[in-house]
Design brief:
By secondary structure, the protein is α/β, with parallel strands linked by helices. Helix content is about 40%, strand content about 20%. The chain has 19 helices and 16 strands. Strands 1, 2, 3, 4, 5, 6, 7 and 8 form an 8-stranded mixed beta sheet that branches. Strands 9, 10, 11, 12, 13, 14, 15 and 16 form an 8-stranded mixed beta sheet that branches. Helix 4 runs parallel beside helix 5 and helix 12 runs parallel beside helix 14. The mean pLDDT is about 95.
Length: about 525
């Protein structure tokens, strides 16, 4: 085996400083995750419990196989907005009766589980993951529908929720709805468009229009139960396939539905794999606080891949990008990891070739980001950095094997694209608390704006305001810094979550397992024109 050595001095002051900085970031992250776990707050959680109901995550826990993990997705959705952290929705991947499923659960303690613009984005991302990876989709429903004050941002794009459910079904991917409470107005189409529907006695309420709306529209007097209760839908309308006496019974019935789906993975699970030779705990102290300081990504690779075994590809060429082959929880992967931040022509060409090789062999790709982008300057422009960078982006864009991305440090400019950022449809994308992503670094961006303003003043023959320039630069740096931080980006669903570096191997293993539920085949040609 080609086991990676480690030169990391875990007893040195530099390592300890980096570790302490990462632990501080993780503490901040835990505080934000706690807001999502708290739902609508103590008052509304208590009210929900007094009604004899389970919380969203409690429902998920009862649904899942005992002692199996739940990979929660987008837990910081809506962070930094006017809406609750988590966006009144829990989404993630878990195992039900041995079947990996995509699970969504409304959090009714947050404004009755009403959907806001971030809830919509989060639900659509969950459906995308289910469709791409052929994961059965289980919806745990209790929602009053759209958050009406924000309807202008929800109504038009919101129809995609129902479109997705029908497309999942048409693709042979099972959809199951378990209704615990309200599922009204447009929300009634969630059970209406699911393959299997379970409703809870005297709790589930599914109707296009509730009694007040019916009264206004038709003059008809009605009550909740006769209009949309679980028993009515089980006995009269036929919308309910299963009539549950309470919430635990509904979740038991959901598990039995999944057990009878006959849904099989495209690929068998690999045998148990040997863990890394080096301690994943060390990952806390690898990334420098100043992202301009380079670090060796092999130290990361050595702590996430099986047996720390890594066969490097072109180790002496394009050394700012480390590429090579490994296995992760038994799954083969090709890894591209930024070493010193900047991507030159050599790195771009190396990456394009490596991606083509992975596609020839049907091997998923893992991108570990720490890049400030492609190199600029006269020498590099004349050397063809544009066409070589385009070659790498072309390869990433047209590669057909599954891609996974982890932002460890910087992920700036077109380097973010070449390393398979969100716009390039990685199956999953996660960030470490140390990550930053933007069009460029804050100082560079502020400096560019300053130069442009200075040139504009000179062209007009006007004196330049140096004090104003300093204030502008400080303001821009502060804004760009705040907008490049992982919690800000995760709040906008530009990643699938901010994770503890120590959990990277586990998270990627769960993702690779989900990826192998669906068949895939790499591109055999079809990469478009590579400009040579």
């Amino acid at each position: 085996m080609t086991v990676l050595d480690s030169a990391l001095d875990t007893g040195g002051p530099e390592y300890r400083s980096r570790r302490e900085a990462m632990l501080a970031k993780l503490a901040d992250l835990d505080a934000e995750h706690a807001k999502a776990l708290a739902g609508g707050g103590e008052k509304y959680v208590e009210r929900h419990r007094r009604r004899g109901k389970l919380l969203a995550r409690e429902r998920i826990e009862l649904l899942l196989d005992p002692d199996t993990p739940f990979l929660e997705l987008s837990p910081l959705a809506a962070w930094g907005s006017d809406y609750a952290v988590g966006a009144s929705l829990v989404t993630g991947i878990g195992v039900v009766e041995g079947v990996e499923c995509l699970i969504t659960a409304n959090d009714p303690t947050v404004r009755g589980g009403a959907s806001n613009p971030w809830s919509l984005k989060k639900a659509l991302r969950a459906h995308e993951i289910a469709l791409t990876n052929r994961l059965p989709c289980i919806s745990l429903v209790e929602s009053g529908g759209a958050d009406l004050p924000s309807q202008k941002e929800i109504f038009v794009p919101g129809g995609a929720i129902f479109r997705d459910l029908t497309r999942l079904s048409a693709a042979g991917i099972p959809t199951v709805a378990v209704v615990f409470g309200n599922s009204t107005a447009g929300g009634a189409y969630v059970p209406g468009m699911s393959d299997h529907v379970i409703m809870v006695k005297e709790r589930a309420k599914v109707f296009l229009g509730g009694p007040p709306l019916v009264k206004m529209a038709t003059g008809e007097e009605s009550d909740d139960e006769s209009l949309g209760g679980a028993e009515m839908h089980a006995r009269v309308s036929g919308l309910a396939d299963h009539f549950a006496v309470d919430e635990p019974d509904a979740l038991r019935r959901a598990r039995r539905v999944v057990a009878r789906l006959n849904h099989r993975k495209a690929y068998p699970d690999p045998p148990p794999a040997e863990p890394p030779k080096h301690d994943p705990e060390d990952l806390l102290g690898i990334v420098p606080e100043d992202l301009k300081t380079p670090f060796d990504p092999r130290e990361v690779i050595a702590r996430i891949v099986d047996a720390s075994d890594f066969d490097e590809f072109k180790p002496l060429y394009g050394t700012s990008l480390t590429t090579g082959w490994a296995a992760l929880h038994g799954y083969p992967v090709g890894i591209l990891a930024n070493a010193r931040g900047v991507l030159f022509s050599e790195e771009s060409q190396k990456a394009a070739q490596f991606i083509q090789l992975a596609d020839q062999r049907d091997i998923p790709l893992l991108f570990l980001h720490n890049t400030t982008g492609y190199m600029v300057g006269k020498e590099y422009e004349q050397g063809g950095i544009i066409k070589h960078g385009a070659m790498m982006i072309n390869a990433v864009s047209n590669s057909k094997v599954p891609h996974l991305s982890v932002l460890m440090g910087a992920s700036y400019g077109a380097g973010h694209y070449g390393m398979c950022g969100r716009a390039y449809d990685p199956r999953f994308l996660f960030a470490w608390p140390s990550a930053k992503s933007a069009v460029m670094g804050p100082q560079q961006l502020a400096g560019v704006l300053s130069i442009v303003a200075r040139q504009s003043a000179a062209a007009k023959g006007q004196p330049y305001d140096e004090e104003g320039d300093a204030a502008l630069r400080a303001m821009v740096e502060q804004r760009i810094e705040s907008e490049s931080l992982p919690m800000f980006l995760s709040g906008r669903l530009y990643d699938d979550g901010v994770i503890d570096p120590r959990d990277t191997r586990t998270v990627l293993g769960l993702c690779l397992s989900a990826v192998h539920t669906a068949p895939y085949e790499g591109a055999r040609g079809g990469f478009g024109v590579f400009r040579m």
